[in-house]
Amino acid sequence: MLSPPAPHPREVPGTTLGGTFGGEIGYSAMDASFWNTRYGQSDYLYGTEPNDFLTAHSSLFPEDAEVLCLADGEGRNGVYLASRGLRVTAVDSSSVGLEKARRLAAERQVPLEAVVADLADWDLGVDRWDGVVSIWAHLPREIRSTLHPRIRRALRPGGVLLMEHYHPKQIPYGTGGPSDPAMMLTLAELEGDFASWEHLHVFEGERNVQEGDKHSGLSYVTQAILRKPRGSRELP
Fold first, then answer.
1. Which of 41, 58, 119, 193 is packed most tightly, with the most Cβ within 10 A?
2. pTM as predicted
3. How many CA atoms lie within 13 A of 100 on its CB side?
4. How far apart are CA 147 and CA 218, in angstroms?
């Protein structure tokens, strides 16, 4: 039996909405109004198909897992995970993007919780999620430095963090991602921020990315799938 469509995106009280997380410009370069305008076009900016790195490894999330999708934009990744029976919350600063995510979920008849919030200070909870997905969530280092500890606290012991970001070496490729290499992610940074976590998959290097006309062509990426140690609990 198919699940009912999701409700409209809800805005989290007390959050600021300046900036977005899923686009090629980056968090601090433009505010949410820019992304609301860009997502306002009829087409989906990055298409409606999920990121192929995510689809290749989504079986790592157990059946009926609660998964948080950071910077989910128009919802293609969250909707895909919901279609696999996972309980998905998609968060982004763009209300327009998440409204399109809601429509996509309704078309595919899957539930999706959509939350408009700012990852700079949004509370991810403690031992709240079985999985966290971060695809192209390019943020300044000062925000990553507070977000990564929140991710550590928010994942349940044994939970999985799946990330794909552009690497600073992506800049000369010109096939996607922000123009500032400081917005991009390296394995060295992840290994420092998630030092004790199990490495299920780590990779830095070239791969072909085809996601609409904004992510198109040979690219230099950072990929990581990390598991929080079982029995581990991060202090608030």
1. 119
2. 0.87
3. 24
4. 29
